[in-house]
Amino acid sequence: MRFAAASLRAGLAPSAATWVLAQQVAVRGLVAVKFLAIGRLLGPAAIGSVSVALLAVAIAESLSDTGLAQAVVQGRDAPTRDELGAVFTTLVARGACVALILVALAPFMASQFHLVGSLLLLQMAAALPLVRGIASPGYYVAQRERRFSCIAAIEIGAALADCCVGLAFAFSGAGAYSVLIGMLVGEALKTTVTWAALTPRPPLTPRWSGIGHYIGFSRWIWAGSVVNLVLNQFDKVVVGKMLGPAQLGAYQMSSRLAQMLLADAAIALSQYLFPTFAAHHREDAKRAATLFRRYLAIGACAVVLVVLVLRAMASWLFALVLGPQWMPAVPLFRIFVVNMALGALIAVLVAYLRARGDARTAAQASALQVVVLVAVVPVALRQWGVVGIAWGMTAGLATAGLWMFYRTVKPR
């Protein structure tokens, strides 16, 4: 009985992985309910229009990624209030600049991606980076200190608000706008709670100096973000530009459904593993390496099993969840299941590499993936269309994963 009680207390400790798992199940479950319900209601073309708006946000945020959040988590010493103030000033400025640029470029994006009458949708999406930018950097300190229970409460609350508001607007006839309205409400709630519940709170006085020691690490995060921009959005840009919003909607929904069912669990696990690996590495590098190998082996076995099951159930799953209008996307889903399995393993590799201060290897792997995509996708698009693009992504992911794995086992 005492052992069981001790195990329960350990499982519910603020730093326990239980909270990360609970956060992942709840948040991704709510996101799944929202997107699947709205996708079934609106169809591929509307989802494609929203995807273009979110694509613009992702491009701008990746190009302007400062890497400061990861630097705060990874750094050997805890940040002071003045350092947090400089981090906050930088992130607010970044969010405001990104929002203004997106508003200015909205007409160009609408014309390039064949979005007739969707200018307001693109301009609405510009508010997302601004709302995210004014969140308290105390959130990153909470990640560093592994206060996973607090982080889980914030993320679940924001996801619940996003889901409920988005569905309410969708069923009231707001169309594609309902997706963005829900996201804005969820991000606004998250930003508010980070200031109300998390400490330390940075001073609000603008401050631009004092974080130079983060640059050496964060520059590689920025480099990785820029390269990942090409990796994560290149295929969507090609599909949206060449094939239009309906094909982009099918491509995006297939990818998102595969991500929900497979990769999101690994992404959530990496949120636990990055600060955990970092904490172990600060104390004993060999123990951190042993822990990494254990998680990677378990993850590899798990994703193989899940891939086999999902590929076998693909047609039934689409017919049940999304309806007959989405059935042409089933072949894409079967490919994306493989891609997300590779992405799940890569998430573990990246968490370990960054935890030991080797963000450069992750950036190099992303660069290799870009080379593969540039070489493969144009030919694959001509030969097999959108399916060829999906298989091109598989080749790139496999290349990146093999490079990172090689770097983890090579003696430093």
From TrEMBL:
Keywords: Cell membrane, Membrane, Transmembrane, Transmembrane helix. GO terms for cellular component: plasma membrane. Belongs to the polysaccharide synthase family. It comes from Trinickia soli. It is found in: Cell membrane. This is PST family polysaccharide export protein. InterPro entries: Poly_Biosynth_Transport (IPR050833). It comes from the Bacteria. The keyword Cell membrane applies. It holds the Pfam family Polysacc_synt_3. It is a multi-pass membrane protein. The chain crosses the membrane at residues 38-63, 84-109, 115-135, 211-231, 295-319, 331-353, 365-381, 387-406. The keyword tRNA processing does not apply.
